[in-house]
Amino acid sequence: MQQSSGSITVRLFAALREQAGWDQRSWPLNGGADALSVWQALGFGDAIPDGTRVAINQEFESPRQQLQQGDELAFLPPISGG
Amino acid sequence: MAGSIPIDVALCSNAFEPLAELQQWPHQENDAATAIFIGRMRSQGSSAEELEAMQLEHYPGMTERQLQHLASDAASSHGVRAVLLRHRIGRVTPNQALVLVAVSADRRGPAQRCCQALLEAIKHDAPFWKQEISRSGKRRWIEGNTPL
């Protein structure tokens, strides 16, 4: 079992927030965790759906970017601005 | 240099009047070419139903920074002189302005190309989410954008 090494903040928006029923929560950070592993651990599914993007500390990042203690991880459903 | 190009970006939580914003923007009088795009909320939804309103959600902090970044990038790439960008957030009603993009340059080509490129960048890379609210009270999140 991987050791917990602090925590991150997870944020959800729009349809994803409504489906999950929450918008922000603290989540334990395990060594080597990335956005995909957090997505899976949250019970959202095996894969991040096409069009859903990941932001870490408010910058777009790869779902495989390793997370660090204190990071703000956001899952962004397909965007529709302009 | 991108850093020296005036980039004026703001999110508007209340209705704004695009022409009034333009009147207060000095570059449209001082530069030879200005390209302008004004986007307004449609009265019909994506399923052709009549809409009561739309809720525009954003990611506070990231959205503002991303708009500034996209505008600076577009301005630098196209060699324009100034960019003005306004984008609504919150509850919007039909025909209200959603977005204003204005680009001033010394020629029409760079102004028009930058305006179009920046608008497309906003649609694809700025974290906004639209939720349609129909007259019958149904709410629906819109995924993706209308065709070009």
Describe this structure in words.
The complex is a heterodimer of chains A (82) and B (148). Chain A is an alpha+beta fold. Chain A has helices spanning 14-20, 35-41, and strands spanning 4-12, 24-30, 53-56, 59-61, 72-76. Chain A has a five-stranded mixed sheet. Helices cover 30% and strands 35% of the residues of chain B. Chain B starts with 6 loop residues before the first strand and ends in a 6-residue tail after the last strand. In chain B, 34% of the residues are buried. Chain B is an alpha+beta fold and 148 residues long. In chain B, helix 3 runs antiparallel to helix 4. Chain A binds chain B through residues 11, 13-15, 18, 51, 55, 58-60, 74, 76-82, and chain B through 39, 57, 59, 61-62, 65, 87, 98-99, 119, 122-131, 141-145.
β-strand amount of chain A: 25-35%
Q: How would you name the CATH homologous superfamily of chain A?
A: Beta-grasp domain
In terms of quaternary structure, the protein is heterodimer
Topology as H/E string of chain B?
Answer: EHHEEHEEEHEE
CATH architecture of chain B: Alpha-Beta Complex
CATH topology of chain B: Aldehyde Oxidoreductase, domain 3
Written as H for each helix and E for each strand, in order along the chain, the element string of chain A is: EHEHEEE
Number of helices of chain A: 2
C-alpha Rg of chain B, in Å?
16 Å
Task: Provide key terms for this protein.
heterodimer; A: 82 residues; alpha+beta; Ubiquitin-like (UB roll); five-stranded mixed sheet; 5 strands; 17% helix; 34% strand; B: 148 residues; Aldehyde Oxidoreductase, domain 3; four-stranded mixed sheet
